[in-house]
Amino acid sequence: MNKLLLNKDRILLEFIEICKNLNLFYSLDRLSLYGTMSKEHSWNNLDHHEIMMKYQDYEILKNACPNRVLDNALHSLYHDLQIKFVDDNKNIYENQPFLNINLIYPTNIANIKKYLKHCNQARSFIGHYLTMTNSNDWKTKNNIIKSHFLSIFYKPITYKEVANLLIKNDHQGFLISSPIIKKDSLKYWLPNIKFETKKVIINNIEVDVLVEFDQYLKNVYEVEYFEHPIPQRKIEYINPIEYKKIFS
User: Fold this and answer.
1) Number of C-beta neighbours around residue 191 at 10 A
2) What domain of life is recorded for the organism (predicted)?
3) What is the DSSP pairing of strand 27-28 with strand 98-107?
4) How many helices (H) and strands (E) does the chain have?
5) For the chain, what is the largest distance between any 2 Cα atoms, rounded to a whole number of angstroms?
6) 149 Cβ contact partners less than 8 Å away, ≥ 6 residues apart
7) Of 232, 240, 247, nearest to 2 (Cα)?
8) pLDDT (tens digit, 9 = 90+) per residue, 136-194?
């Protein structure tokens, strides 16, 4: 069993403790949320966890723990939009556990249209694959090569640029960030949330879960999540950046 899998719950616990001490909002997100709220009630098939948090709260976390966060405005070798919480961000290719952090942006439809422009989609694609060095999957290898070529014409988009594009005081709802901007990024749209959470215990860990999780999970996974276990992983991370395809 690899180091990431063995330590995924430990790094989640450390993150939760920091959020408590700093009074920061967070909720489980994506498959971590799915596994918690499904009938199976299990994280066993995950090699990392995902959470969502407010943009402003992430900035507080970043200032408090600059060596434990990985984002593309902080680290010159890291170009991905996906923010991560790690043991140590000095060596981003080290085999170490990580936590994906997805940011909650208050925004409106007009700004989302700007966000979804083709150039932003291309820049996020470049950033996602440009940081990788290799893969055992031909499609990922091809995307790595393609990203290096496209980076001649486009610079990867930073999460700060995304924040400037999306954040509006007169917002109509909230958009949860994605590592690659695509048309289907709209499935991470939440028309209204009150930032209320409830406590759930899983694997002897007490975690915060967004109260309005139900419709969100249905939008993201397009299934009645309660009746379905977490899908089997198709990739396995070997460090916070790179992953290999699992061949059945």
Assistant:
1) 9
2) Bacteria
3) unpaired
4) 8, 11
5) 49
6) none
7) 240
8) 999 999 999 999 999 999 999 999 999 999 999 889 999 999 999 999 999 999 987 88
